[in-house]
Specification:
By secondary structure, the protein is an alpha+beta fold. It has a single domain, classed as Thiol Ester Dehydrase, Chain A, CATH 3.10.129.10. Helices cover 22% and strands 34% of the residues. The chain contains 3 helices and 5 strands; from the N terminus they run E-H-H-E-E-E-E-H. Strands 1-3-4-5-2 form a 5-stranded antiparallel beta sheet. It is globular and about 40 Å long. It starts with 18 loop residues before the first strand and ends with a helix.
């Protein structure tokens, strides 16, 4: 199996949703380097903003609608360390929209250097029963529109 290679930010779709994130003290280990698992928490915060951006507010899904979007699978490729105080750009892209789940690939760049790439598969569940449910139509449509707009 070949190791993925970092890609520059200009290789990502120009119209993709991007958010800056300043690396905070609590994201880091004692050496001031982002703790590997902290990247998942950082990505989750940006994904919440991303869902709001595409018109399906995360708080409404998980709150009044009682639809969970928990991770069914998560993986990461680390290319370079992120450090306390740096600002990175976080870019989620839709890789797949399935029947009851969707896959995002989240790229994290510091200027022209990709630091980490996360693959996140979120499955939709009924938060009352804990059972899997199909993707809601509005979420499926919004994810598909964004995927198409990014030329994926």
């Amino acid at each position: 199996m070949s190791r993925p290679q970092p890609i520059p930010p200009d290789a990502l779709p120009a119209g993709a949703f991007r958010r800056p994130y300043r690396i905070r003290f609590h994201d880091c280990d004692p050496a001031g380097i982002v703790f590997f698992a902290a990247w998942f928490a950082i990505a989750h915060g940006i994904v919440e903003e991303f869902l709001d951006h595409i018109g399906v507010p995360f708080a409404a899904l998980n709150g009044p609608r009682r639809i969970g979007t928990g991770l069914a699978h998560a993986a990461a490729d680390y290319f370079a360390p992120g450090r306390f105080g740096e600002t990175v750009a976080v870019t989620p892209l839709v890789a797949r929209v399935g029947g009851g789940s969707y896959r995002l690939v989240v790229h994290v760049h510091r200027e022209a250097k990709e630091l980490v790439r996360l693959a996140l598969v979120s499955a939709t569940t009924d938060l009352e029963t804990g059972r899997a449910i199909p993707l809601p139509d509005d979420l499926r449509s919004a994810l598909s529109r964004y995927q198409e707009a990014c030329g994926q």
